Amino acid sequence: MSDFRKHLERSLQDPEFRDEWDARAAERMVAQQIVEARMNEGLSQQELAKRCDMKPANLCRLEGG
Fold first, then answer.
1. 26 FRET partner, CA 20 to 30 A, in 1, 19, 61, 62?
2. Contacts of 21 (CB under 8 A, 6+ apart)
3. Closest CA relative to residue 31, chosen from 19, 45, 18
4. Confidence of residue 2 (pLDDT cuts 50, 70, 90)
5. What's the CA gap between 2 and 30, in Å, rounded?
6. Packing angle between helix 15-23 and helix 25-40, nearest 10 degrees?
7. Residue 16 Cα to chain centre, angstroms
8. What is the pLDDT of residues 17-35, one digit of tens each?
9. How far apart are CA 24 and CA 1, in angstroms?
């Protein structure tokens, strides 16, 4: 199990954190779909950002949720 997963499991024990995590589930799903679509098209973040007329750093933040 990754360090992130371990940290997430511990964090989800906190009811306030869990509520926020659950409230943002749709945002995480959209971000995941963007990443999957980009990868399926064989595009880098740089290439997709250019096509979307946005800065690569903003796309990175969007994909990261």
1. 1
2. 11, 12
3. 45
4. confident
5. 23
6. 50
7. 20
8. 999 999 999 999 999 999 9
9. 23
d(CA 44, CA 46): 5
Question: Can you spell out the DSSP letters for the chain?
Answer: --HHHHHHHHHTTSHHHHHHHHHTHHHHHHHHHHHHHHHHTT--HHHHHHHTTS-HHHHHHHHH-
Match 């906190």 to its residue by tokens. 14
- Picking from 53, 21, 9, the residue whose alpha carbon sits closest to that of residue 1 is 9
